[in-house]
Every structure is written in C-alpha cells, then in structure tokens.
Write a structure and sequence with these properties.
- GO terms for molecular function: ATP binding; catalytic activity, acting on a protein; magnesium ion binding; phenylalanine-tRNA ligase activity; transferase activity; tRNA binding.
- This is Phenylalanine--tRNA ligase alpha subunit.
- With 344 residues, the chain is an alpha+beta fold.
- It has helices spanning 2-18, 22-33, 38-43, 53-90, 109-123, 137-140, 172-182, 224-239, 292-297, 314-322, 335-338, and strands at 127-128, 134-136, 159-160, 165-167, 188-197, 209-219, 245-252, 255-264, 281-290, 306-313.
- The chain folds into 2 domains: 2-90; 109-341, Bira Bifunctional Protein, Domain 2 (BirA Bifunctional Protein, domain 2).
- Strands 1-5-6-10-9-8-7 form a 7-stranded mixed sheet, sandwiched between helices.
- Helix 1 (2-18) packs parallel to helix 4, helix 2 packs antiparallel against helix 4 (53-90) and helix 5 packs across helix 10 (314-322).
- The model has no long low-confidence stretch (mean pLDDT 87).
Length: 344
C-alpha cells in the first residue's frame, strides 16, 4: 500500500504541474481527493492491514493528502495571478493618449424659442400656467363659447378618446381653468405654453402635434389698445426693434372683436420678398378681446371686467426666427439640423 500511495502522489503532482486552468485543477481535485477519488479508494483498503501497519500507512496517507492539497493551493494561486496579469494587460489604459471630448448636447430650437418667449412675457409681469394635454370637451370647447354641433369645431379637427375626452386642440383650456381657479379675482395675467394635437396632414408647414403659447389678461378697463401694445412689445423683443405689426379683422368664437396679427417680414424688413410673397408681412398669431360669454361662464362679470387673449404657434415663430423652411425638421431628430443651434 505504501507503494500505491507514493505512486498516487507522484501521479497527482505530475498532473498538477501540467494543469493550466482552474477547470483542470478542479478535475484533478475530484480525481484524487474526491469521495470516489484515487486516494479514497486506497484508504478503503486499510482494513486489511495489520494493527502495526495502520498507523504508519495512515500517517503516510495524510502526508500524501497534505502534499497534494499544498500543490493544489499553490497552483490555484499561480493561475489566478496569471489571469489577473492577463486582464490587466488587456485592459491597460494609455494615459498619455489625447482624451476624447464627450459629445455635447444643445437646447432644442423649439425649447430655445419657448424660453425666449417666456422670458419676454415674464418681464412684462405675466405668470406661466400649465394644464393637462388630455382634456375634457367642456374646457376645450364649451367653456370657450363653442357648444356641441357649433360649426367652429370644424376649424379644429380633433383626436377624441371618448365622447367627453380629447387631446387638447389648443392651450386655451388652461386659460379657462385658471379663471375658474381665480374665482373672479383680478388681475389675471398668464401665458400657457404646451403641446396641442389636431388631425392634420403633415407637410412642410403643418403637423398633427405642435406647440402653442397662449396669453390671457383680465382686469378692469382692459382695451384693444392694451393688446396691440403688448403684441408690439413682444414682436420687437423677439424679432428686433424695427419690427412693426398690423392687426387684421378675423373670427374666433372665444374673442370679440378678433384679429390676426402680422409682423413686418423678418427677411426683407417689409420691402417684399419670396418668404412674405412680396407683401412685406408675415402672419404670426391670432388675438382678440375675451368674449363676454367666456368671462361669464368663468365667473367674471363682463359688465365690470374685460380682457384680451392671444395665441401663437411656437414652430411658426421658430421658423421665422431661424429661417427654417420645413416644420418637420423639428421632429426628425437629425443631428445635422440640431447641431446648428448649439451656439445660437
């Protein structure tokens, strides 16, 4: 049995010397040291030994086990060190190489224009109000003097979710909600930025999703001249001090009288060009004095209070400001287009 143990030790140590992976070490451990391993099989034959031989062979077996386990541990440590060195070499970073600057984002042109418009009106004492994009029919239409079956609803082809819920077609519902929340108190002086939705065929100048900013002022003695002065101030701060405006009669169910507002062409200064179709003017927004019926439904006495409202498409303003000829550029996430505004 002594010869078997010595031969087993020599065989195991030779196998360990050739092992080159942790998997190979585990296989050797199981082959020689496992419950069914070679060393265990040898020790099972100790029952046939004489009482004098057992302690001698038992001591030798422990020595063989210890020798194999020691080499196993040393080999495992060596393989782990080699793996660590290999990974360090593969993952080595050359700190002397020039660095790569991370890609730097920029504010989207629509957000730039929204912030600029907000800053202009905040400077005139307005507050910013917001409301839900999924809106009730009452706030989107009825409270704005557009009852059911009113022909004016055809002006805003809508996305209805249920009979009484739709994606808002303008941000005017925020004005109604603000007036309700004020419960007849004045002054009301707000702008309402946000996305709106209308069923429309997308082309160079139309989109079924776009951004509006509307404004509302309610107080005593508010006149059409206040509206004109406000919009002139806005236009000159947005497009330049030389900008002029003109107001043309129009119709909106929630304002009376109503007016479309044009600015002198930002491209030619009013001389006439291809952009303004030789007229010298560009339409930018709709406006008017708040309809007495709208005031009354919101809890204001139209005999005592008056107000004006206006609304503009942010995309329209941005297209004029930056000379963009296709509204779809704002939504296509083309980095070549967006990078132009990194320093604007």
């Amino acid at each position: 049995m002594r010869e078997k143990l010595e031969a087993l030790q020599a065989e195991a140590l030779a196998a360990l010397a050739e092992a080159n992976s942790q998997q190979a070490l585990n296989e050797i451990r199981v082959k020689y040291m496992g419950k069914k391993g070679a060393l265990t099989e040898v020790l099972r034959g100790m029952g046939a030994l004489s009482p004098e031989e057992r302690p001698v062979i038992g001591q030798l077996a422990n020595e063989v086990r210890g020798a194999i386990e020691q080499v196993l541990e040393e080999k495992a440590a060596e393989l782990e060190r080699q793996e660590t060195e290999r990974r360090l070499a593969a993952e080595k970073i050359d700190v002397t190489l020039p660095g790569r600057k991370p890609a730097q984002g920029a504010v989207h042109p629509l957000n730039k224009v929204i912030r600029e418009i907000e800053d202009i009106f905040l400077g005139m004492g307005y507050a910013i109000a917001e409301g839900p994009e999924l809106e009730q029919d009452y706030y989107n239409f009825e409270a704005l003097n557009i009852p059911r079956n009113h022909p004016a609803r055809d002006m805003q082809d809508s996305f209805y979710i249920t009979e009484d819920l739709l994606m808002r077609t303008h941000t005017s519902p925020v004005q109604v909600r603000t007036m309700e929340r004020m419960k007849g108190d004045v002054p009301v002086k707000i702008i309402c930025p946000g996305r709106v939705y209308r069923r429309d065929d997308d082309d160079a100048t139309h989109s079924h999703v776009f951004t509006q900013i509307e404004g509302l002022v309610i107080d005593e003695h508010i006149r059409m001249s206040d509206l004109k002065g406000t919009l002139l101030q806005f236009a000159q701060e947005m497009f330049g001090k030389e900008t002029k405006i003109r107001m043309r009669p129009s119709f909106f169910p929630f304002t009376e009288p109503s007016a479309e507002v044009d600015v002198s062409c930002v491209m030619c200064g009013g001389d006439g060009c291809r952009v303004c179709k030789q007229t010298g003017w560009l339409e930018i927004l709709g406006s008017g004095m708040v309809h007495p019926r709208v005031l009354e439904m919101a809890g204001y006495d139209p005999a005592k209070y008056s107000g004006f409202a206006f609304g503009m498409g942010v995309e329209r303003i941005a297209m004029l400001k930056y000379g963009i000829d296709d509204i779809r550029h704002f939504y296509m996430n083309d980095l070549r287009f967006l990078r132009q505004f990194a320093r604007v």
